[in-house]
Structure formats: structure tokens, C-alpha cells
Amino acid sequence: MLDPLRPDHNLRTVRDANHYGPFTTVLRAAARRWPARTAVIDDRGGLTFAELDSRSDSLARGLAARGHGAGTVLGVLCRDHRGMLLAMAAAGKLGARVVLLNTGFGGRQLAEVAVRERIAALLLDAEFLPLLAEAPAEIARVLTRVDEAAPADPELLTVDGLVATHAPEPLPAPAAAGGLVILTSGTTGTPKGAPREKVSPLQSAQFLDRIPLPRDSTMVMAAPLFHGTGLSQLGLGWALGNTVVLRPGRFDPRWTVAAVAEHRAGSLVVVPTMLQRIVDLPAAELAAHDTSALRVIFAAGSSVSPDLSRRTAELFGEVLYNLYASTEVAVAAVATPEDMRLAPGTVGRPPVGCRVALYDERRARITEPGVVGTIFVSSGLSFAGYTDGRTKETVDGLLSSGDVGHFDAEGRLFVDGRDDDMIISGGENVFPLEVENLLVERGDIAEAAVVGVPDADFGQRLRAFVVPVEGAAVDAQEIKDYVKADLARHKVPREVIVLDELPRNATGKLLRRALLEYDPDAAG
Fold first, then answer.
1. Spatial distance between the Cα atoms of 118 and 132, rounded to a whole number of angstroms
2. Gyration radius (Cα) of the chain, Å
């Protein structure tokens, strides 16, 4: 990432981080080092690093002319495309605070977050304008993308318009970086804001320590940029001189595989549900694309089942790296292809600069392999508290991840589930993930989720939701017998419900709350 022949560039990059924040700093550094290299390719074509840097200067001037600057909070609500990149880079040059908003928001959620985070202006794609009915009217709007499906409102400013009407000249550097707020997944309510006030580019070593991202190559970005997975890997990709390929629409597994082949991509960034949809494509379709240039498939956001890691290796070779992280604790552990081959289901080991420890209910340290406890993490990227003043539990300087897990004898970490997902049935503890992983090992089940529902005799009973593979017919009793043959009796689902798909949010996280509220009688 650092050029030994240009120590002046390296020093300038370190200095920039204090003024512009990590995103804009990486773009400025890449524009100095590789000005003519293509930085991004989307449905409008390619832009070089120099062009992105220059256009974001113009956009920053346009926003400054309308009163936005240091201290302003800008909300960014975009699909993955150049408009989002320009918005974030311009915000960094203004010293403005950026709140990355989830493209899966409903109108009420958006309004609640906008008020709580004190958003002064929204930079958003035109398709999201209908969501603003409940948002405060005084929030300024700037359109980041318009198209035939979502045409421009002639009364609203656009990013393209501001870029075209303002000089591409840098503004004076802000006194300090404005900061970045990444929202939690919101699977249990309104998403909370997790601020990242200051991130050093050198902290990227936590990723590169265990994930050999290629340099001077191409990265296909399938994971959404509004979340930490996509954003962090785009920044790392740029820092390594990579061109990043974006798709502005919703995830399409066929487009993704075709893009990897077309651009000879060395890396692909996904969340596990996306990877599942890729490996579920017909074998003939996958074989029609040459993906042999892939060196890294980077997956993060949820667990990778043993079945998914095995099938990925069979199709693409040993290129899958699974990051265990969260919005709050950031990086916790990385599983390499070797880890997943030797210990299927593991999330690996902590990379350099990270510590992971397990604690029991009394918060005594657990050191014995195989014993389950709450996972606590320390990394240079961990947050200091939510924007509403709340925080997460801390023990011995480590932050709770909200998950429970165990180590094996070789020191590899396994996540057994969320601490609040644990089911107590007949006095026995059941973590849904163990049952879910067993179910998806079957050839006729594509996805599975298990929740606990009230039971008069046992306190809770297990209810399994399964999504069959295309064309398969599943039998509930046969599934129960299958689980009973492998697991203890109290882990066998009492009910099996077949769905067309599982409820998930825009980052692929399972919405267990929707399953807990599911009424089989009302659903027919």
C-alpha cells in the first residue's frame, strides 16, 4: 500500500487522514499515485482516480456554496455507483459528518434516523424520494442518481449539476475530519448509529494480515457500500491500486459471475447470502464463465456454513476468506481457506492488532476449548458508543460482540449464535445455528432458520423454517427424523414450515423477529 520511492506521498497520506477521514484520504492518495488508472466502473462507464478526485472537488464547492461544511451532517442514501463515491469524497473535503443510510429503509425508519442524527442534507438516489414523506421538510435534498425509472425532479439539485457548474479546485483542508456513522443492521428495531470518528489507513493491516487481496487488479463489489464490509474493502482495493466494479441495482448472481469473468477480477466482495445464491446457480451457467483469475472471495456480514464453504471451494478453488466482524467491534477474526477446510464452520483467528476472549455469565474468562461463552473483542477499529449515548458491555477493555461461541483446541473461533437468539427448551440450551447448519447440509434445502416459540410444557419449542431448492419437495416429518439422527432430542424442531424465501434486510441479515412473529394459522 505504501510507495517506498515516494516517502513524501506516504507522509501526506498520513497527514490527510487527520483532515479528510479514511475514504477521501485513500482517494486523494490513489489520485496522486495512479491518476490515469480507472478507479470505478459502473453502468455509466469508467472514471479514473484523477477524475473522481477532481469531480468531488467540484461537488464539495457546490455543497459549500449552499452552506454545507464542517459541522454539517450529510445523509447518504444510494445504491452502489459513482454518485455515492462522489458524495462521500466531497463530504470528506468539507469536513462534514456522513451518515450512511440503509437502502432497505422504510419511510418511518428513515425519518427517525434523520432526526436522531441531525441530518441537514440528504444526498440520495431519485428512487428513494418517496420515502421522504415523513422526514423533516427542512432537510435539503440533492439527487445522486436519476434514470428513466426514477427521473429527476426539476426543482432539486443533482450531483451532476453541481459538478458541472463549479470549478474543480480543491477547497482548503478542513481542520479535522468530520467523521462517519455506520448504522447497525436494525434486525431488532430502529438501526443505531455507530460512529467512526477517526480511522488510520494503517489499521487496514488487520485485514491484509490474513487476507491476501491482490494489487493492481480488479475487484467486483457485490456487497453494499453503505455497510462496513463493502466500504472497507473498496477503500483497501483502491489503496492497492485496484479498479472497483459496481452494480447500481439490486444484487444479481448472474451479473456478478459474468462481471468477474469479463473483468478478470482478482477479488469478489460479498455477504454470505449472495455467495449462496451464486453457488446455487445451475452448474452449466457457472461453467460458461471463466473465473480463474479470482484469488480472493471476501465474505462478511454473517456466518458461512460448512456446506457453503465446501461448495465454494469445489466451484472456485480455495479462495474464500470469511471475516467475522460487527458494526460495533469491527474486525474480530478471519477464517482462511485452510481454516475452513480443516475446521468447517469456524470464523478463524484474530488478525494482527485484534484480541478475542470468551467470558461466562459471571464474566470470568473462559480458557478451555469447547466451552461456550460470550465473545468480547478489542481492535483499533472498535467504536466508543452509539450516537444516542448508549454503548455495549465492556470487560477487561474488550467490547461485547453480542454473540456466543467457543474455541477449538487449535485456537480457532466458532460462533454458536447471538446471545439473545438462544432457545431454552425443557431446561436445555439450544443455539439455532447448529440446527440450521445441519439442515442446509441436505441437498433439498437451500436455506434454513430456527427460532424458539412459546410452549406450555417446555417453555419454548423449536420451529424451523426451510426454503427448498428449486423443484424439490420436502417432508416435515422426514426433516425432523433427519435432525433427530444427528442431534440431541431437545434440538429437534417440533414444527417445520416451508417458505419461498427467508426475510432478510438489505445487507443479507436474517430478520428473526419477523419469523418470531410469524403466525402459521394466519399465513395458511
1. 15
2. 23
pTM above 0.70, yes or no: yes
Q: How far apart are CA 150 and CA 211, in angstroms?
A: 39
* Separation in Å, CA 204 to CA 10, 71, 201, 224: 15, 27, 6, 19
Kindly give the pairing relationship between strand 193-196 and strand 180-183. Answer: antiparallel
What sign results for the dihedral spanned by CA atoms 250, 255, 257, 259?
A: negative
CB neighbours of residue 36 within 10 Å: 9
DSSP assignment of 398-413, as one string?
EEEEEEEEEE-TTS-E
Length of the chain counted residue by residue: 524
What does the alpha-carbon distance between residue 101 and residue 108 come to, in Å, rounded to a whole number?
A: 13
Q: Which residues, in sequence order, are bridge partners of residue 269? A: 221, 298
Closest-CA residue to 10 (of 258, 167, 142, 200): 200
- Per-residue pLDDT tens over the stretch 209-247: 889 999 999 999 999 999 888 999 999 999 999 999 999
Closest CA to 394 of 376, 407, 379: 376
Cell of 62: 457546490
DSSP helix, strand, coil percent of the chain (3-state; round to 5)? 35, 25, 40
Is the CB of residue 25 less than 8 Å from the CB of residue 129?
no
The residues of the chain scoring below 50 in pLDDT are: none
Residue 494 CA to its chain's centroid (Å): 33
CA distances from 89 to 96, 290, 312, 425 (A): 10, 34, 35, 51
Residues 6+ apart with CB under 8 A from 501: 447, 467
